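Supplementary Methods S3. Input chains for the assembly prediction are listed below.
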Amino acid sequence: MELYFFWGAFAAYTVAMSLFIGYAITRRELLAQVAKKGLVFAVICHGVSLIIRTTIARAMPQHSWYVPWSNWFESFSFFAAVIVVEYLIIQRKHEIPILGAFVTPLAFISMVVAIHSPFGTQIPNLPPALQSYWMAIHVPVMFISYAAFANAFGIGIAYLLQEYQIKSRKPSHLMFRLPALDDLDNMIYRVIWTAFPILTLGVLLGARWAYDAWGRYWGWDPKETWALVTWLTYLIYLQMRLIAGWRGRKTAYLSLLGFVVVIGTYIGVNYLSPLHAFLSNGGK
Amino acid sequence: MFGFEEVLPIQEGKTAALRNRPTQVTLNSFTIGYYNSSDTPSRYASDLEVMEQGRLVGKKRIAVNDPLDINNMRFYQGSWGMTQDFRSARLLLAGREMELHQNEAVPVPGTPLAVRANRFLPSFSVDASGHAATTDFEGKNPALQIDFLENGATKARVWLLKNQPNAAFKIGEDGQARPAAPPPFHLLDVAPVFFSEIHVVYDPGAPLFWMSSVGLLIGLCLRFYLHQWRD
Amino acid sequence: MNSKESIMGLVAVGLSHKTAPVEIRERLTIPADQLAEALDRLSTMKELSESVILSTCNRVEIYARPRADRSRALAAARRFFQGLYQYPGLNEALYHFDAHSAVEHLFRVAAGLDSMVVGETEILGQVKSAYLTSQAHGSTGKITNVLFQRALFVGKQVRSKTFISEGASSVGSIAVQLAEKIFGPLNKHRILLLGAGEMAEVTARHLLSQKAGQIVILNRTFDRAAALAKQLNGVAGSMDRLEDELLLADIVICSTSADKPVLSKALVEPVMKVRRGRSLYFVDIAVPRNVDPAVNGIDNVYLYNIDDLKSLVEENMARRKGEVARAEALVTGLAAEFYEWIRATLEGKTKALRHKS
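Predicted structure tokens for the full assembly:
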């Protein structure tokens, strides 16, 4: 039953994304307004589906620690929701609807990846390693930071597009619809700056969980190592921007690179790490 | 950070001693549950007792994510497996169910034979040299070796597979396992003896690590917050 | 005499840049402080009951309601113009509209469709001010009141529903728009003006009108820089301060008469390092160019020369022209709607007039 809400959310994300892209092309304000409402509706649907799913699952035996991000399908679905929620929060502060055309596709892709889960969409059987309250703490914190980096990625693409336009001395009309370079650059910085401590907290929580589960807080397991690489990448971004005085295109590229590393940590690692291959494990 | 780490594989009922400290760990029993009769474990736990110099210092059923914590010494549930010992097994033989214990000869009613089960393999297969062996310790293909005795002498030695009632392997004079015809007797169930891997970690430096982590976090927040102010 | 016709009557008489050259128009323009006197004169004419005078540098028009006969009202309006400045070609230069077409003409004017720069926005403010002045003077009446209020609405509608006023129409304003797309709000950004010529001044004024920050003017002759600085409320200096000022300013308008580029890549690159990558925007309106084109290759530096800006303006104007047909159609529709509404109201029926579409 909760899958109906999931599909409702997916449909609304798709519609909102199309409307945002339509708005970027035609500049009709109405499209942007409807798109934003569509996103809010989608998030509510999605939230309801997660609540229902949790309620159903917790009633199952051996599922008292269940949280709705325990396998491939669930984690990509959750990721999309968090990306959109964070986008809406950024919008409240900055009101630049055209950025929706750059961020919602990421949420859409995440949903599509979820749907194409090689392990199905049913509630998974939790392996003992995931039966812990840490699932409800460490994982969401990591996702909150990942979703912020996704938003920064989208804004970074918008920045690079705008920079290319203005640099070319023959900007198209798209240039006038995109925000100012400095504004975009600052937004990326603020998002990353806010997400970085959250990422740090997430990694430390992961270490604490590892300490409770396996007796060591750092083991150079691929996921842990890649998470460290992610952390270092964004540390370099902040360092370069604040101290070395990098601005503009170079930092935009760093923000893009950072998100690629995030994806590597999120997905790539599951094919490498014996301990952390949660996305593959929980599907049975 | 400073301290030691040891891995103790302990069979149910046995005790192991730490090398770095005068401590003994006893595994009283190991329990494991599965999801819906699949072979995916849903939970597994070890009942431990820890003794130091004759005194009981800790007793707990530990599981993954739920270790035993005694004065900076922590006992974690690591991996687990089935040994080649078993407590009991049930066979379907000559139309009736029989319960066997390890190395116990039980006469088969209505025949001059007796059966004796003496070896259990968690995941049976025939290895390269033709002998019965196990591919892992998780019990993917439980098998029991049964001797048929007549007047105390072994007449036949057969391997029965729990998951494949129509398959059986005969052990020849040379010790090699060969496929045999579908037998009229079946292995219904085996209760194996488990072993559990207990990880023991002694890390007095751990609180230091946590404090410096929190310090790092606060430092990061402050540093960037201050920069934001200056912007 | 058809009483119904006269009730609905409306006339518009005037001349514009389309019918008279500037030498004539400037004789007929009524400055704001003389409007009251002109309106008085109009009110002495018995043939007209309500009236509004619209006088800008590009047109002088009277919108009025005939008290009785339409042709008599037109003649009266013409007399008014002759009273302003009688010259041989006047009658040919004056155009007139009545009833429905008068409504449509006013709406077109308010929408910027009759302007020299299609879609310009200044006219809307001028129409508003003309209306308010006449209203305060007591010259307006029921019909002219609703007519002008509706005209202001139409002016806004056409500009928001079409792209008729989209895009900057002058080099100065496009330069400013680009600045805003690089920096966002301009208030914390300093302007550096190299050279003190007229073009530079115009561009600088545009920037200042967008609330840009402090302006610094450097010129080879200090006095000219100082004079301009006084006008623009800025600071003057001589050209040897160039490198220092490049570190501080974000927007540089280059308009010196040097015959070789004053700003080279070798000069700007180290400046960018000291600036720690903060964006730098050069508006090079000098011919020959003041800035070496290679400067555009530096990261975070944006260089636009006069040709770049002109071609952007042309693109905008072409796009505006492309919107003219849509805008005209919109105006025609709104004019017809309004005219129907007036007629219905005067006949005693009430109809609602849409205020949003």
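Chain A is about 70% helix and 0% strand. The interface with chain C takes residues 162, 166-167, 169-171, 173, 175-176, 178-183, 245-250 of chain A (CB under 8 Å).
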